[in-house]
Every structure is written in structure tokens, then in C-alpha cells.
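TL;DR need C-alpha cells for one chain.
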Amino acid sequence: MRKLFATMFLWFWLTLFVPSLVIVLFFVHAGFGFGVVHVTLHNVVVFSLAGGIFCYFISRYLTKPLYQLGAAAASIAEGRLDTRVDPSVTRRRDEIADLARNFDRMAERIEALVTGQRRLLGDVSHELRSPLSRLIVALSLVKQGPPEEAAENLERIGLEARRLDTLIGQLLALTRIDSGVDRGSPAPLDLTNLVQEVANDGDFEARARHRSVLIQQADACTIRGFEELLRSAVENVVRNAIRHTAEGTAVEISLQVRESRALLRVRDSGPGVPDSMLSEIFLPFRRVASGNSDGAGLGLAIAERAVTVHRGTIRARNAPQGGLIVEIDLPLAAFSASSGRP
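>> reply
TL;DR here they are.
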């Protein structure tokens, strides 16, 4: 506060001293005598004292919230990510209050990101531990078990290795989406053609499980974005539906254009998701407790990140007649081609 007070008082005193000095010199030169000079100097001293008091309170008013902002920033730097600015600062009606509110939003975002990264690291450690443990057990059985069981144990090793490969591949995909590496620039893409290609591929895979994929509606639409990234999002949603739909049923896909947005809807005929988990299924490694435990639990998380990059939204809801409906809402309008970020 001392520096701000000294600066304010210096400017105040200079703005007072210069005009006063000019007035004094004028009166002396005009021959009014030193009585007028004495009165003028007396007034300068009085105004200087008053100005000093005024500058003190103004500098205190300005620096106190800044000190509180600095203390909050130092607390976050020390690792206390739940730190927020004192409410007395955010209740002010000036630019400092706007700064404090922006600071709190930044702190909340940082806390959410760091907490999410820590949770993801813990989840990854847990997910890797299980297949690695099974690999070690299977390898021990190959070495120490009877020869007639070696083929079965080797098959188990191959299965766990493929699971690890899938998990690591999806983790890398999730990291690339977050970092924007090798994303390039957005370009116009035919969303209708992309959905039809994904549906054809999904139907081919679904037949092996006695299921099918049907397109009920496919309006013509073109959006601006990243084709492979968006294809990955749609594929993960469709494959998730194929995995959970009941045997002998079909995954239904519809693509509708509404004003300036494209709505992609994918519905399965599976058991659905508990209402409390409808938003959590888009988080990494969130699985619904059911008989189907295939997958690494990252497919819908990848879809959510990819849709967010395209300034879209993804949501899930249970169908009234049973099954899960996943909806992807994408804007048809172009976004910035320079950054490729939402």
C-alpha cells in the first residue's frame, strides 16, 4: 500500500503545487506583498494534509482487495486448489470485483482439471492392474503347469494383451483429443455420409452377435469439423449400443436437421442405465453394473470429448419402452478454422 499511497500523494501534491506556485509568483510580481503569499502557502499546507488523508484511504480501498487476491493466488500455488477469493471482494461493484469473480472461475476450472487428472490416473492404475495380474498368473501357469493346459493359458495371455492394447490405445486417443495434437484444421464434411459408413460397419460387426444396425432417417447435412475425430465419436456410440442391445434386436440410428443444428440419435434395446448414472457414463472408466463388462470404459468419454471439440453436446436418456438413447447435437454453422478449438 505504501507504494500506491506515495504515488497518489505525489501526483496530488504536484497538481496542487504547480498551480499554487504560479499564483504565488503572479501575486509577488504584481506587488501584493508577502501577506498574500503567506495565505497561499497556508492553504497549500492545509490542502496537502487533506490530500494525504484522502490518498491514504483511497489507496487502502484499492490495495486491500488486491492483497486478498494475491493471498488467494499464493494459496493455490501452494496446492490448496479449493481456495477462493473472500466474498467481500466479489460483492464490490467495480472492476476489482469482476477480476475476483474471474479468478474464482479460473480456480474452479483448475481444481476440476487437476482433480479429474488425479482421478483418471487412479482409474488407469486400477484398470491396468487387473489384466497385468492375470497376465502374470497365466505366464506362471504356462511355465509351471501341465503341458496340456499351455494352449489355454497362452490364449488367456493373448486375450489380456489385446485388452491392454485396447485400453492403452483409447487412453492415447483421449489424450490426443485433449491436447489437440495432429488435429489439423477443420474442414467441411458430409455428416450424412459419415453416419451411413459407420452404420454399415457397425451392422457388419453386429451380425456376428445376432444383432443389426438400422438407419431410420438420414437428413442431408454438412458440418465443419474434423472427420476422423467425429467418426471416432459416432463409432464409439454405435459400438456401445451394439454391445448392450439385446440379441435379435437392432440399433436404430436417425440423423435430423433442425434449423441450424444436426441431431444424431442412437438407440439400443438393452437394459438401459440407472437415472443417477446417465451423466456419469461419459466419464472415463464409468461402467454400469451389468452382465456385459466388455470394453475399457473409455468409448463414451472419447465421444464426449470429440463432440465438445465440435461445439456440440452429447446426452443420454432411457427410452420409455426400454433401452438407452444417446443424442449428439452438433451445430451446422462453421467455427474458427484458425484454432480448431471450441
